[in-house]
Amino acid sequence: MSFSFSEENNLKIASLMKRYPQKKALILPLLWMAQKQDGYISEDAMQVISEHSHMPYMHVYSVATFYTMFRLQKPTKRVIEVCRTLSCELRGSQEIKKHLLENYSDSYEIVEVECMGACSGAPMCTLDGKYLENLTPRLLDEVLNAN
Amino acid sequence: MQTKIVSKNFEIPHAETLAVALQNGRYASLEKLFTFTPQELIDIIKASGLRGKGGGGAPAGAKWQLVSDFEGKKYLVVNADESEPGTFKDRQILAKDPHLLIEGMICTCYAIGSNTSYVYVRGEYEEFSNILQVAIDEAYEKNLLGIDAKYPVEITIHRGAGAYICGEKSALLESLEGNRGHPRLKPKSPEPEFYFGEPTLVNNVETIASVPFIVENGAEAYTACGTDCSPGTLLFAISGHVEKPGVYEAQFGVGMWDYIQELGGGVKGGKKLKAVIPGGASTPILPAHLVYEARLDYESLKTIGSALGTGGMIVLDEDASMVKALKNLLRFYHHESCGQCTPCREGTSWVDKTLDKFIAKTATHEDLEILKSVSKSMNGKTICVFAPAASGVIEGFLKHFESEFLECIQ
Amino acid sequence: MKIIVDNTPIECKEGELLINVLLNNGVEIPHFCYHQDLGADGNCRMCMVEIKGQKRPQVACDTFVCENLEVFTKTKSINEVKRSILELELLNHPVDCPICDQAGECKLQDYYMDFGLYNSHLTTPKTKKGKAIDLGSNVMLDQERCVLCTRCVRFTTNITKTNELGIIGRGDSSRVAVAPNRPLNNPYAMNVVELCPVGALTSKDFRFAQRVWFLDSVKSVCHGCSRGCNIHIDYNETKYSDEKVYRFRSRRNKQINQSFLCDYGRLSYRELNEKFNSTSWGMESFKELLRAEKKVALVSPSFSLQQLQAVKEFCKNYNIELFSLPYADESFGDDWLKTNDTSANFTGVKELNISTCQDKFNSFLESSELVVNFDHNLLKVKELENKKVISFTTSKIEIKCEAVFAIANFAHESGTIINCDGIRQDFYATKYRCEAPRLIELLEELQ
Ligand SMILES: Cc1cc2nc3c(=O)[nH]c(=O)nc-3n(C[C@H](O)[C@H](O)[C@H](O)COP(=O)(O)O)c2cc1C
Ligand code: SF4
Ligand code: SF4
Ligand code: SF4
Ligand code: FES
Ligand code: FES
Questions:
Q1: Candidate from B339, B342, B364 with C-beta closest to C85
Q2: B215, B229, B345, C35: which has the fewest C-beta neighbours closer than 10 Å?
Q3: Which of B178, B239, B316 sits opposite A122 (nearest CB)?
Q4: pTM given for the model
């Protein structure tokens, strides 16, 4: 099998096991762990998780596809998520999205997401999961060029 | 206008560290805590009238009692899924005063007789759950948590992974068990939630964060704030077309328009107010004339056909398109339906697609009828209240702003 | 205990599931996700009823009955509720019943006829999903027809525990699927086709073979092993050819197979359509053969009690030593339905005191000049040295025989068999006669 958890992660799994009444509850934490480790969740990783959690492969697969933050494909670019929900739209998320698509879609994967709980910093997006709030196209350029 | 109970330490630099937290009164309630029996504590919470701050406003004391009445293993699960559009208050507690939450969890666990607890944090809040984790680690180190604590409590953070519906308590527990986040069929009579078959209390972050104040100062100190039916305060939040979007704690019962003007800095760019969605996307919209008379508490918002929800207000100015706003919200519901039951899975999708025709101005009168009838079909026939909430949103928009929809008809 | 359904009292047990009570008493209640042998899931919301004292309509599959519960299933408002849910269900469903394999036994089709939803007023684009996906084990999936009742998923999760099927995705992009490179693969897989209330799961074996309304059906029992699963035999006779059996469907029997069949048994209908030749023999030469001094007969342990009885009498008259030997296949059985005894009526053989001693049979066989084989598989393939063989058979004989009498198989001759647990079961013949005579009548003639 081409996937295995790192030494360090295996230690973490051992201690996580004690924190839940059943191994099945490890599925979400381990999906996260696999994604952190590889950038995405491979079939092999789901197989390993299915063994750790004592649950069928199909269950793990079905769970993984329910949650939008889990990636089952290897990412080819860094990811920018733009919030498209109401508070952000009212404060210009469309403009941010347009700016991103026009200038950055070659080097970044740009995805729209629902409210990130940052409505007071609207419009907002995330870069590699980090929140960037109160955006203007100019501010965005600054951040992206510095990164 | 602000009354700071939960947000008292928000402005203090480094209040997330244990040292600063201790200097600023965190964990002080624990001294009093153990002078009460668990039942006495539950009675205090009941007397305080504390209501759930996750959107439903259910009396916390009664829920605690239900769980406490069971013998044996029990769990506390803190709901930090916070995904309701327009809501971003729990995040402040996680990031700015995580020890307040931990303190509240210790009190709550003691009251209901649980030693194991989880905080279910939405996946997107990685930054904030990391802050909370550091705080938890510190608390373990100082024996505030763990088996060597005066009252042993274990806290584990469980991260969601992008699913609004996991904020619904039974879906949350499904997710915590390692399943898809499908809400469960509802019990016919009052009973607690169950995690792997054991009775479980699910409360919102802010609900739990309000507990230490009540333990420390007594129920009366809490009921002294707010209204009779909605005692205390809420971390109201405000976003959209306002000058100063943010989270400002206030007592229940303050005027909505006062709040918007005083704390939110008024409508952005000095424009006129058109409408406010009062408590997160799931609460029916209020047109300006109702906003002026609205008070921020459960009962008064109910009487004017809306709800307090999470207290996250979204303000829309005179230029906002109601058609676009509704489309935006229904796209959210379409995207977030768990897909389990037919009326919701198909209904949210249909309404979203129908609204596209209004946006494109190619809608017909039949499409408007479809909106109304599908909205009706989604109400009261589903497993959870997600679809009825979507239905209420549509009804609210059509009730107050139907003319804008009529303008989009060919 | 009593409840009142549409003003009529119905007897039931406290705490029973309302939908079960309704179904058991023949009250029509539309439902997709509930299944008596899979339990409730509550996702389709079709089984809504009105309950006195409750503001909102309730789903019958999540309501437990209590004394004097008053239920209404057909009021105007409840019909309106069901109609609206059905309408939503039909939104993304292709309206091409004429080319759907399930047409005629599709619940969706039935219900929308019932609720008068002939023209769906869909005015927005339908959600596109996968068509004709091969899941494995002869099962094809059309995701666009699926109503996501999860019956198929619950079958592979809770019943076979093989877990090949699951729901993937979320919201209206939820769909039934197998994981990549992990096809549906278990000895009971084809049950999902029958469980599917609509035309989303179809069998490659039956797909488009025949429109269901051209089929006749008869109650029968599978003869694939000693479990004796209850079946319907679906068959027809077309103008230009003989009667043909198209499929076996499970017939619910709570005690034996619930609503399920194994794939082997389900597909064993094919043997019933096999064609083979018999030799024509005059009565005289037949009797001539029977004058042999030493004679032994072997009878199939899958014969019905009635057939066994007739064979027994026949052998007694002609002084033939009669035996039966079991069909045993150690690789066939499992811990659910399939048994290692792959005969249908070995219990019956024992009840009729037919000798089943292998050693005795061997020694009789050794010394006999004439062997009469009553459809026993053992003597269809193994050539016997220096012996004359008469065969009565329902399938092709591979060895040299003096005489071969084709006889009707169990689709054409009613009878009774006793299963491995001693349960006696009748099965019935289809209404058309086949060319081959029924054994009992043939033996009478030959007496
Ligand atoms: C669709 C839906 C989403 C919800 N999302 C949240 C949420 O993000 N956070 C939360 O605390 N409660 C949420 N709730 C409410 C919870 O189900 C539950 O009532 C609450 O966590 C109980 O805590 P409380 O009584 O302290 O408010 C949601 C409910 C529904 C129906
Ligand atoms: S109402 Fe919607 S979100 Fe709730 S269970 Fe049904 S499909 Fe899922
Ligand atoms: S394929 Fe058929 S049985 Fe399976 S969920 Fe869809 S409709 Fe139900
Ligand atoms: S288990 Fe035996 S009786 Fe049942 S269907 Fe299979 S072969 Fe036939
Ligand atoms: S709407 Fe964009 S963060 Fe809430
Ligand atoms: S049969 Fe009751 S909800 Fe499907």
A1: B342
A2: B229
A3: B239
A4: 0.95
